[in-house]
Batch of 2 targets.
Target 1
Amino acid sequence: MINIICEISKYIVLIFMVLYTFKCFSIMASKDEDEREKKLRAQVVYIFLIHFFCYLILYLRLQEIKILIFYGIQFTIMIFYRMVYHAVYKDASKLLTNNMIFLMMIGYIILTRLEFGLAIKQFLFATVGLLITAFFPVIMLKWKKLKDMGVVYGIIGIFLLLSVFIPGIGYEMYGSRNWIQIGGFSMQPMEFVKILFVFFVASMLVKVDTFKDLLINAIISAAFMGILVIEKDLGAAVIFYITYVFMVYLATSRISFLIGGLSLGVGGVTLGYLLFKNTLFQHVLVRVEAWKNPFAYIDTGGYQVSQSLFALGTGGYTGSGLTQGKAHTIPVSESDFVFSAICEEMGVIFGLALILVFVSIFISYVNVAMKCRIPFYKYLAFGFGCIFIIQSLLNIGGVTKFIPSTGVTLPLVSYGVTSVLSTLIIFAVVQGVFVITNKEAMKNEKEKERLGLQPASSTK
């Protein structure tokens, strides 16, 4: 009987996952406000039905009461958070909130299946993160000088990156020296530096008047990436570089900067790999060889990618079912390779839908940026959109052998306290931009009404 219930539940989850993904795009296309609200409410229902049936499967398979308790606490916190957040911020984006909650819940589900202790830890820190970041929109509304602190962002960001070289604090993991440990707490400074980096670039681009100003901005931005290269954290360096190029393109609208920047990046990566592959970036060479032919190195460097591909193929379209796969055979399946574990047990259809959800979030970020008339906030929203989607694609591309593995996490889904906290900050800042944009639009409408002109259309 348990097997029948679990099997039926698995297909119900897939159906609701497809419906949820469809709603992500249809909501953005809706013009009528009432229709949007109806779709947003349906989306919330889909989120909690997916959550319910996944935890039902986990409880029936594992028969542990702590799973039910954990489910109940998650459900209560998320419902309460969504209600209170949108009661306070009536102009905030409900779609962004829904997607954030959805990704967090998918992360809790797969971590509960993989290692319950990690799921608890992730949940506790994420809940604290939700509480802290809930104040970000109001801070952004009140603090008008955020755009004038470019130097401060740059100094703090570079200091945090350099902290990994402090003896006794910084240490190396998986070939990259990008971790610090203070007391019993470990973190990756890069996760918070990427936020400071976007703030720095946005504030500096606002002040750019000449090519010389842009060149100075580029040199300082290159310092961030240079430190990441010295740390051998090439995945982060790629994220920073591509984000910078696209932010400059948005600010200047010059296609030559976009093409030239991307070409320079490809050339730099190729040259660096050829010159230093056997010295500075030995671990990258292992990953590249594993990417080219993982099965030839299945007993050594290719084991992780090989197991990931086995998992993706074994699960098929509908998945083997939660707890029925062999996700534990994939090294760091709870973090870098969590997408493989999801696809094996929840199905490739679920995995493809999840990719589309990430794409829809990026489109939402870009929409927020395009509707914003204040350059600084426009650059922020767009920059964070680039950070989010590049990191997502690097993670998924690595586990599917589309590109060499870069060691970055899947936002809000992979285990990683600093990764989750930084992503929650990104969502909060973009929500802040959305709130500011809507308030500016309302102010313009009232001004036009006062002057007897046609009211401007709402940004909602």
Target 2
Amino acid sequence: MEKKENYTYIVKCSDGTLYTGWTTSLEHRIAVHNNGKGAKYTRSRRPVELVYYESFDTKRKAMQREAAIKRMKRGEKERLMRGFVDTGTHRSA
């Protein structure tokens, strides 16, 4: 059985707000958000832009990280995003 990658991600919405989620396919999930079929939060805030992601070997770890990021203040999320943009790398757990 092929092992799926799991991702926790942050998108920046057109109104400047941030949305955090998890998925097994970043490309597909961003397309779903931008087609208005994603989370209720992002539907009226399109388009969204992927600004950060981390990869995990299990869904559970990705969901735990999603919850942790959602608890962060905006400044903490922006620091994560800056590190991601500046280095072009992501954290893999």
